[in-house]
Amino acid sequence: MQISEAIAGFASVVEAARAKLADVDAKIEAKEEEHRAIFRADPHTDDIVAVFLGELERVEDTFSEQLRTRLNDTYVGEGSAKAVALGRSMNILLLEPEKPDQQALMTRSLRGETSPPLNLTILTYFLRHRIALELPKLIDELCPAARDGIRGADRAFKIRQIEEELRELRAERERISTDLQAARSAVQL
Fold first, then answer.
1. pLDDT tens digits, 106-153
2. What is the pTM of this model?
3. Which of 34, 44, 77, 150 has the fewest CB within 10 Å, making it most exposed?
4. d(C-alpha 118, C-alpha 100), whole Å
5. Cα separation of 183 and 17, whole Å?
């Protein structure tokens, strides 16, 4: 009777471990789905606005570099005094990112173009404050789903939190699996 009671007790412990393993597996799957849902969730309006404002900041740097280059090419060095004396100026909205070489000028001429294309970087630079004021309203109006999106900082925090919970659950799963494997080995003795 004692052996049958021991076997029944052992079987009960093994069955409880299997149930615990199934429970941990279900929790892992639920956490993985939560992770995927947070990862796929729409960004918040504030984060979308920040992306556009970041681009406006880059435009400032690009414009400054383009203008610095052209000013130095035109008004510094040999012939610069003559350029000023002749009143040589440039249409700032048509300022090219770099001074065109002879080949570029010839190509433009052959195409029938009388001037370079409008420099959108420079135009954006001069309109950047107005754009920055209008962006939040436009994004909110045109992308209302973003109002309910997840802010980047919140998303990162939640993902880190879930990943930590997953590490703990996977470690628990490994411990239970190891215990079950040890139990199988003990029964085979």
1. 777 777 877 778 888 889 999 999 999 999 999 999 999 999 999 999
2. 0.66
3. 77
4. 14
5. 10
